[in-house]
Every structure is written in C-alpha cells, then in structure tokens.
Design brief:
The protein has helices at about 5, 20-35, 40-45, 55-70, 75-95, 95-100, 105-125, 125-135, 145-170, 175-215, 225-245. It is an all-alpha fold and about 250 residues long. The longest helix is centred in the C-terminal third of the chain and has 40 residues, at about 175-215.
Length: about 250
C-alpha cells in the first residue's frame, strides 16, 4: 500500500471491512499474550486492603497473613534447603573479586581495601537479599540468615584459600607457605564468617520488620550492619597489606 493510499479516506475503518478484523485480531492476540496469572505481590498491591482509605495497619496484617499462609505450605527441609542454596550462590558469586584483587597495580590495592570488602560482603548476602525481598515465605526462622551467611562465607573462604595457596602464593618457600596456609585457613576463614554473620544480622532486622509491619522489605535497616562488616573487612585487608610480610 502506497503512502497516498494509506492516508486516503478509503482506508478509514468505517469504509474498509478488512481493517477492523485485522485490528481486532491484533488486540485479541495482545490480550492473550498479556493474560498471565498475577504474582503474589501484584495480588497484594491490587487488594482492596491496599486502598489508601484502609489503614496501613490493616493492610500490613493482610500482607503478613498472606506471607505466613504461603510459608505454612513450605516444608522444613525445603525452607532450609533454599537457604543453603542462597548461601551457596552468594559464596560462589563473591569469588570473581579474588581475581581483581590480584590483578596488580594501584587498582588492586584500592580494590583490596575498599572494593573487595564492599563487593564480597554484599555478594555473600545476595541470595538471602533476594529471598527477603521477593520470596520471604521461604524464611521461616531467623536462624536461616545465620546459616546461609556461614555457608556463603565458608564457600568463599575455601575457594579463596585454595587459589591463594595453590596459585598466587605457590612460589613461596615451603616453610613460609605452610605458615600462610595455616593463617588463611584459620584467621582468614574466621574473618569471612564473622563479617558475613554481622551482615546477616541486618537482613534479619529487615525480615523482622516485614513480618511486623507487613510492608515491603526495607533494606535500609540492614545498611548499618553491612557497613560495619565492610569496615572490619577493609581494615583487616589494609593491615595485612601493610604488615603481611612482617607477620609471616
């Protein structure tokens, strides 16, 4: 169809029986494609209890009840299994930072002191952050946060220690390498577990707040704990970077 014919009055829907059929078929197709079941959070958003005229307290009760109702159908094994998976994913996703820290130069030094602690402490918690924000019914006990934190820290520490001992520091004299290995498997592992547990305390506060108020998860409650974990980790890295040779 030429441009002139397209803009002609003869192309008006009222004068062309074929056009309405085509447009109607397109509309029906779009409706079918977009006709997906509403998600849990969409149902809560569109609930009559979410109307401004309804008190926030009642709205919170409704959301909280809906979360607890879904949680009732999650078994103990599945709940803790999902927490283990969240910790496993967090620990693995934290590993790429190890390669950046050993890239050399001033970038590596800055990353070790600042970038590394930030990335590692956040990524260790990424699995539980997702569950807290989007699928809180899988978290039936606050101890799941500590459990996932320990799993993520141990996974990360194990991979990091293996890389350092067998790759980055493999050329050290054997006696010094043994001391470094002993230090990494004890002190470094303890550091990662401790910092992950501190960060998990913040997520536990977010989870408590969600159950108490029934409102969307507010990660602002976790920030002080995340910052504390990052600062402790950064100070440790700074100290070991400056005094590492003297320690060993």
């Amino acid at each position: 169809m030429s441009k002139k014919d397209y803009f002609s009055i003869n192309s008006e829907p009222a004068l062309n029986a074929s056009l309405p059929e085509r447009e109607e078929s397109i509309c029906v197709e779009e409706i079918v494609q977009n006709d997906k079941p509403a998600s849990f959070w969409e149902k809560q958003r569109d609930s009559v209890f979410s109307e401004p005229a309804i008190s926030s307290e009642n709205s919170g009760d409704t959301v909280r009840s809906a979360i607890l109702k879904k949680a009732a159908h999650i078994s103990f094994a599945k709940s803790w299994g999902v927490s283990f998976l969240a910790g496993l994913i967090g620990g693995i996703l934290s590993v790429p930072g190890v390669f950046l820290a050993n890239s050399g130069g001033m970038f590596a030094f800055g990353y070790i002191i600042i970038g590394g602690p930030v990335a590692e402490e956040l990524m260790k918690q990424c699995g539980m952050i997702y569950l807290t924000e989007y699928k809180p019914w899988y978290i039936k006990n606050r101890w799941q946060y500590y459990f996932a934190a320990i799993i993520s820290a141990l996974i990360f520490a194990t991979i990091e220690n293996i890389l350092y001992i067998n790759v980055y520091l493999a050329k050290l004299p054997l006696d010094k390498l043994e001391r470094v290995a002993s230090f990494r498997w004890s002190i470094c592992t303890l550091l990662h577990v401790s910092c992950a547990l501190i960060a998990s305390l913040g997520l536990k506060r977010v989870w408590d707040g969600r159950l108490l108020t029934g409102k969307p998860a507010d990660l602002a409650y976790a920030y002080p704990y995340f910052i504390l974990a990052i600062v402790i980790h950064g100070l440790y890295n700074f100290t070991m970077t400056i005094l590492g040779d003297k320690v060993f």
